[in-house]
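Re-run with default settings, no changes from the original entry. Doing this only to confirm the output is reproducible before filing.
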Amino acid sequence: MSTIDPFQLSFETVVAASPMLGHRLENRASIRKQQDLQLIQRLQESSTVPLRNASQQDSFVVAPLDILVSRQDGRIQFHIIELNGSGIGGVSNMPAQVVAAVVESLRRVARSCWEQETVLLLPVSGKECNRAPRLNKLMHEKLIFAEALQQGMVDAGSDADIVTLEGLQNGSQSLRDGSSAVVLGYIKDFLNACEVDLNGCVSLFGRRVVGAVNDRFCLNLISQFKNQIDLTKFIPFNGTYIAGGDKGVAYSLLDEYLVHQPSALFPRRVNYSHAFNRAELIDSVVQWLRSGLKPVIKPHGTGIGHGIDFFLEHEESIASVTRRIDESIEITEEYYSAIGGAFPYTVCEFIDSDVIKDKGHRLDGHKYELRVVVYQDGMSLKACPTIAKVASEPFDAFNAGRENLINNITNSSVTKKVDGTDYMLPLSCSQTLELLGITLEDLDELCRVATRYVRHVIDEIPRMKSRMKHERGSDWSPLPSTLQRQLSSIHAL
C-alpha cells in the first residue's frame, strides 16, 4: 500500500494553482536549487556557535541579516544594515534542512507559550498602501509557519485550527469553542483589529492573543498601544524583536559586539543617531550635511524601503531637506498608520556600496546587498547565505535615487512588475561569489561574525527594555548616554 499522503500538496503545486485560488504567488525554486549544500555545510562548520543556555531556545527563532559590501583600498568591507526578524520573506530561497530547523523552533515556542483557547498571530507584510494595496506574493511560505505553530499547539494538548483574519471578519470562519487557533493576516489589518484590556492582555475577537510571529508587527503593536501591553502575557517569537524592527537599536548592539570582537572585514563602529520628532530629524540631517557627511534616514518599524531617503548633496537647501523629510513622514503615516510618523528615525551614514561589474551580465552596474540568515538549530546558531538582492536599476552617481540605491526585492518586483527572482542571485553559489568578487574566506568571516553578533543580541534580551524611552510615550531608543556619545562623535567629525 502506498505511504503517500493524498492530502499533502507540493509547494510548487500550490504556487502553480495560485491564480485560481486568489492571487498569483511567486516560485523561488530556481534560486533554492542553485544553492550549494556542500558550500553551506562548510561555512556552517566554521561559523556555528552555541547558545549560552537552554532557556535561550525559546527566545529566538530567526534573523535575516542584510549586508552591504564596499571596497576600501582594494579590500572588501561588510556593513550590516538590518537585523530583520521572524517576518522573514524568502523562506523558499533556502535549503530544506534550514527551513526545517526554523519550523522546529516555531513549533517549540508555540508549544511553550500555549494556553487553553488562545490564539497565535501570523502577520504578513502587504496592503500597506490604501490606494493600491499590495498582495503578498510569498503568502504560501507563511503556510509552512502556520502549520508549525498549529502543530506546536497540538503538541501542548490542544485542538488547533488555522484561520484567516479576513475570514473571521467576514464571518466565513470562526474561532471554535475549546480550540486554539493560528490566525493568518496582513500586519495593517491586525493592528486595526487587536485590542488591549486593562490587564495588558492583547485580544482578537474576544480571544486572548499569547504571541505573534513578526518582529515588525510586534514592535508596531506595542508602539500603537503606548507600552500598555504586558509582555509576560504577549510573547514576540523573537525576543530580539526591538533590534529587528529598529535599525538604530541593531546598530548600537553591533557597535557593542565589534568593540570586543573586531573583524578586519567590518568597520569598528556604525555612524548613526536617533531622531525622535520632525524637528530633530530635520536638524540632524542638516547638521550631517553641513559636517560633510551624507545621511540616510530610516524610519522605525517599516519595511520594503518605505520612508527611507538619501541626502547626498552637501549644499541641499533646508527647504528641500524639509520637503523630503515630510514626504517620508507622510508615507509612514499612510502605509503604517504611524500617527505623526514612524519615529524614532535612525540617521546613518551613506555607504557607497559595490556594484556588479560584468559587462556581459544583465545586472551589470547594479548595486546589491547580501542576505545571510541566522537561525537556531537545537542549541546552536547557524548562518545560511541565501541571496544577493539587487537594485532594480543600474547605479548612476549623477542621478542617484531610490530605484538604483535600494536593494529590496519586493520594491524591485513591484516597481518593475516582474518576479523578485529577476533581481536576486543565489549567494551560496560559486558563480555568484565570482561575479561579486567575494572569496570563500570573505563569506566565511561574514558568517562567523553574523552568528556571533546575533548571539550578542540574544544575550542582551534581558536588558533590551532599557533601550526604550518611556517618557516619550511609544518611542524606543538607546539609553540617553549612548545617544549623547553618538551625537558627540558625529559633531566632532
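The chain has two domains: 29-85+244-491, 89-237. The mean pLDDT is 89.
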